[in-house]
Amino acid sequence: MTTSRRRTLGLAALGSAGVLDLSALIGLATGGPVGIIFLTAGLGLATVVAAAAASRGSRTGLQVAVAVRVIDTALGIPCWFVDTPAWYLTVVAAMFALTIAGIWLTTPGLRRTKPAAA
Question: Mind telling me which residue stretches traverse the membrane in this protein (predicted)?
């Protein structure tokens, strides 16, 4: 697998995790915590936009996508310790898996390719 193929798969995984976060808006109908739902959906939208920018070659877009996914993954951890519907745990587990795969596949793109000028 070439580096560009890994990067493409990684960006697709990050973007898919962002789309899953946007599906958290369904939680509004089930009476979930409104603040967390909107925060998660906002982070999902930021991920999708940053992954789209990264797919066009933006290193900053890739950094933002990875940072947003790390923050959002940290926000998903508490749902395992409180009374949460099974469907939401399934979405969070899928989001975790996509985030881990996306970060692992795109990490080589975060390295500098040439030394910084002094």
Answer: 34-54, 61-81, 87-105
Query: Beta-carbon neighbour count of residue 88 at 10 Å?
Result: 17
Cα separation values, 20 from 38, 39, 52, 75, Å: 13, 13, 16, 14
Coil, helix or strand at residue 79:
helix
DSSP letter string, 32-59: --HHHHHHHHHHHHHHHHHHHHHHTT-H
Give CA–CA dist 53/55, Å, rounded: 5
Residue indicated by tokens 């998660």: 40
Q: What is the pTM of this model?
A: 0.82
> Which stretches of 1-118 are DSSP H helices?
3-22, 34-55, 59-76, 86-106
pLDDT (tens, 9 = 90+) of the chain, 118 residues, equals: 445 788 888 888 888 888 888 887 877 777 777 888 889 889 999 999 999 998 888 889 989 999 999 999 998 888 889 888 888 888 889 989 999 999 888 887 677 666 666 5
